[in-house]
Amino acid sequence: MAQQPAPPSLPVSDEVGRLYDRYTDLGSVTLGENLHFGYWDSPDSTASLNEATDRLTDLMTERLRIGPGSRVLDLGCGTGAPGSRIARTTGAQVTGISVSHKQVQRANALATTLGLGDQARFERADAMDLPYADGSFDAVIALESIIHMPDRAQVLRHVARVLRPGGRLVLTDFFERAPIPDSGRPAVERYLREFMMTMVQAEDYPPLLRRAGLWFEEMKDISEPTLRRTFVELSGRITESAPELAADYGGELVQQFNPGDLIGVEEFGHLLVVAVRPDA
């Protein structure tokens, strides 16, 4: 599987967990409780970044085709906002996992605050070795989390195992829309390295899913309605709040989070993928 450009080394689960243990608070200040990209339905949408991140959660939830009583696994749950939103809007039972102790604590606290403690629960677990029985879930969502996992094929095999026949997987991933030029490569490699991520080629997904035992259903380039505006909004927030953030987190660390150098790199892409575990 192509994973170009790649950081100096593949992500390691415990190191990713420690990364989010350290930086979750900063991420929440700058990006909001949804630690993922926004989705704007049209170029002239007036939706805020917070509204747009909820919209991406909803867009993916629609493809899960779930309802009251459905069992959903949130693979890489962040601080619990997407999982709690899914539980509240669909009536599903949500189990969220993260390799970050801090994220799990915050996710459970949020669910309790929202009165969803019996419907959405979060625990520390590794997607590379899911601790659930075969056929435990009706659906799996992975919202910008598979980017942190060193072996997508292994993750997808575990997803296929824990899905019931007919169960659905919806994920987002980073991919190369076109070869990244020399002018944009430093920004992309910095982003991947700092946040322990890798990229794929879009054409990798159908065979990856097939070998895992999943049927490919949909693949959609959602770069245009997500990436540039999120980078602009996030960079603006960080720049505007830099003095205050630097006092709490340190200037160098704050600058690490600023994605301003990625705003013009249109070859850096955002991919939506939907797959199904076949009945037979």
Provide the descriptors you would attach to this structure in a database record:
about 280 residues, alpha/beta, Rossmann fold, 7-stranded mixed sheet, globular
Q: Could you write a compact summary of the structure shown?
A:
This protein is of the alpha/beta class and 280 residues long. The chain is built from ten helices and seven strands.
What this model shows, in words?
The structure is a single chain. This protein is an alpha/beta fold. It has helices spanning 13-31, 49-64, 81-90, 101-113, 152-162, 185-194, 205-212, 223-240, 242-249, 251-256; strands spanning 71-75, 93-98, 120-124, 137-142, 163-176, 215-221, 268-276. It has one domain: 3-Layer(aba) Sandwich (Rossmann fold), CATH 3.40.50. It is 42% helix and 19% strand. Strands 3-2-1-4-5-7-6 form a 7-stranded mixed beta sheet. β1 (71-75), α3 and β2 (93-98) form a beta-alpha-beta unit. α5 (152-162) packs across α7. The longest helix has 19 residues, at 13-31. The radius of gyration is 18 Å and the shape is globular. Mean pLDDT is 89; it is low at 1-8.
